[in-house]
Design goal:
By secondary structure, the chain is α+β, with helices and mostly antiparallel strands. The protein is built from 15 helices and twelve strands. It has two domains: 7-19 and 26-237, 2-Layer Sandwich (Cytochrome Bc1 Complex, Chain A, domain 1), CATH 3.30.830; 258-443, Cytochrome Bc1 Complex, Chain A, domain 1. A seven-stranded mixed beta sheet has the order 1-5-6-4-7-3-2, with helices on both faces. It has a five-stranded mixed beta sheet with strand order 8-12-9-11-10, sandwiched between helices. A hairpin with a 6-residue loop joins strand 10 (318-326) and strand 11 (333-341). The longest helix is centred in the middle third of the chain and has 20 residues, at 142-161. It starts with 6 loop residues before the first strand and ends with a strand.
Length: 447
């Protein structure tokens, strides 16, 4: 139940939810980095187990770059990139890939927009050619803009307006950030999305969709030389553009906790949640983000976590509990805890029970054995990613687009294993602070 701040297009291939198979190796992959003459960064990770490749293009633009009054523009433009060009009109981009056995989709977060293609290795040049075409010649006609704007508004109705938890989460995010655009929903406020037009789309395209604002990540049955040759005749020929400098925001400290009580007739069950502002991997001091990852996992990462054992198994106060740390951000991260109380248990009781679980983490270091178990789980999960081309490309692309490095990605297991019980306690003391949090009570009728 932890909330996601990512928006996908309404196309979800089955492999996104398929279970990963066991990893075949634990060594770091061989990563080659280089730049094209137009400024595009390229990352190549060979994986020769199957004759397929995953191509991802990461643009350094996300919802935080939406102009004032036009929230949702970055996500809207993710959709526009599938509207066609003069050379490949309409749905031609997706159709061309599909006819060649490929699959494609995209997603937008506050910090970036990413597009991916999975296709046979001998069709990589085709995928690059199609990307190069839409990076330069996108059809931003009034008709296309109106059509896709209506699609986004319908997506919002389906995913947000008809989902009381999603609506409540929007309110939490808006309350959590006093001045930072992270407080705006990635999909945008509906009134502002409805005002998006061709002029806004054209300006956004020209400012952000340039090769010198992008990172190309290729994972699969390919060598760095293969990638260079394919890019030379396609993406390397896209001219660079002047870029708009990204705004640096300074979020002021909060002076007190915010509490929201939302009653919704469409809510099925009551929900307690609390979301704390915390540093991200990019903004944290050394070791803090790793400690926060471990802290969230120990609090409520799975059925062995403290929240689950205490509230679900022992006290039987809740049917569902959890905690998560979202540290993959350019600016602030978040740590969230939640509980769904059993029938007859009030949200106040659930909140007190959650606080009783949190308090010991700030009072004393966790046991070495509990911490070792969680470290093993987190590192194993990272190893599993290496068996999926898409997950591997995402791990590196997400880090690089947010300002981290290949070394940061590859060194993460060591840093997790090096975290001490005292570091976890210190993270709890410093960041599980109510004045830096928004507490939510979501209640259904007659709760």
């Amino acid at each position: 139940m932890p909330f996601s701040r990512t928006c996908f297009r309404l196309v979800a291939p089955a492999f996104l939810v398929a279970a990963l198979t066991a990893p075949t190796h634990a060594a770091d992959p061989i990563v080659t980095q280089f730049s094209l003459p137009n400024g595009m960064q390229v990352v190549v990770i060979p994986d020769h187990r199957a004759p397929v490749v995953t191509q991802m293009i990461w643009y350094r633009v996300g919802a935080m770059d939406d102009p004032a009054g036009h929230s949702g523009l970055a996500h809207f433009f993710e959709h526009m990139m599938f509207r066609g060009t003069k050379q490949v009109p309409g749905e031609g981009f997706s159709l061309a890939l599909s006819r060649n056995g490929g699959d494609t989709n995209a997603f937008t977060t506050e910090d970036y927009t990413a597009f991916y293609v999975q296709i046979a290795r001998d069709r990589l040049r085709l995928a690059m050619s199609l990307e190069a075409d839409r990076m330069q010649h996108l059809d931003l006609s009034d008709a296309n803009v109106r059509t896709e704007r209506d699609v986004v508004l319908e997506e919002r109705r389906m995913r947000i307006d008809n989902n009381p938890q999603s609506l409540a989460n929007e309110q939490v995010e808006a309350a959590l950030y006093l001045s930072h655009p992270y407080g705006r929903p990635v999909i945008g406020w509906p009134e502002e999305v409805g005002r998006l037009g061709r002029r806004e789309a054209q300006a956004f395209y020209e400012r952000h969709y340039a090769p010198n604002n992008a990172i190309l990540v290729i994972v699969g049955d390919v060598t760095p030389d293969d990638a260079r040759r394919a890019a030379a005749d396609t993406l390397a020929r896209v001219p660079p553009r002047p870029l708009e400098q990204r705004i640096q925001y300074a979020e002021p400290p909060r002076l007190g906790e915010t509490r929201l009580s939302i009653a919704r007739p469409d809510a099925q069950v009551p929900l307690f949640s609390r979301t704390y502002r915390a540093p991200s991997y990019l903004t944290a001091k050394s070791g803090q983000a790793e400690a926060l990852d471990l802290l969230a996992a120990m609090i409520g990462g799975d059925s062995n976590s403290m929240l689950y054992r205490r509230l679900v198994v022992e006290q039987k106060l809740a049917t569902d509990v959890g905690a998560s740390y979202d540290g993959d951000a350019r600016d602030s991260g978040e740590l969230t805890v939640y509980a769904v109380p059993r029938p007859g248990v009030s949200l106040e009781q659930a909140e007190r029970a959650v606080d009783a679980v949190l308090a010991p983490f700030a009072a004393a270091p966790p046991s070495a054995s509990d911490l070792a178990r969680v470290k093993t789980q987190l590192v194993a999960g990272e190893v599993y990613k290496r068996d999926s081309q898409l997950s591997l490309a995402t791990a590196y692309g997400q880090a690089l687009v947010n300002g981290l490095t290949v070394a940061d990605v590859q060194d993460w297991p060591r840093r997790i294993n090096a975290a001490t019980p005292q570091a976890v306690r210190d993270a709890a003391r410093e960041f599980l602070v109510r004045r830096e949090a928004v507490t939510l009570y979501l209640t259904p009728p007659h709760a």
